[in-house]
Design goal:
By secondary structure, this protein is an alpha/beta fold. Helix content is 38%, strand content 17%.
């Protein structure tokens, strides 16, 4: 099983930026946590982070060709306005989960808008870094259910 985890702008600053909202664990901690999850479930999980919209779109498009079976994405601020990332996600027909570390429903009004949510199978928010593990579990369950049909 091959899962791609994409993190958008400023996620590389975990543990540095707004610790009261995003926590004190850094990005390397998140990547290590995800890699350990991959070992636990015997899956290949790649983590990709970029502050650049085009690089995120390029990686989503590459996933069409590289055997990716599921995508977890935290688009960061692009969640709220990147129709280009939305369209790239819509082009890839694999299970997709949008993830947010904070509870976006209790933040500024602009953060409550997601243009990418509708092209994902599920959205998780407000669960901290554990939300990534929940998203991976969702994809694994969805893929297993598809195989059992």
């Amino acid at each position: 099983m091959k899962i791609l985890v994409i993190n958008g702008p400023n996620l590389n600053f975990l543990g540095i930026r707004e610790k009261g909202i995003y926590g004190t664990q850094d990005y390397n901690y998140l990547v290590e946590m995800i890699k350990n999850k991959g070992k636990e479930i015997d899956a290949e999980i790649e983590c990709f982070q970029s502050n650049h919209e085009g690089a995120i779109i390029d990686r989503i498009q590459e996933s069409y060709f590289d055997g990716t079976e599921g995508i977890v994405i935290n688009p960061g601020a692009y969640t709220h306005y990147s129709y280009a990332i939305r369209d790239a996600l819509a082009s890839i027909v694999v299970p997709k989960v949008e993830i947010h570390i904070s509870d976006i429903t209790k933040r500024e009004s602009f953060r409550q808008v997601s243009v990418t949510k509708e092209v994902c199978d599920h959205q998780i928010y407000g669960k901290g870094l554990d939300g990534y593990l929940m998203a991976i579990d969702f994809i694994v369950d969805k893929l297993k259910n598809e195989c059992n049909k």
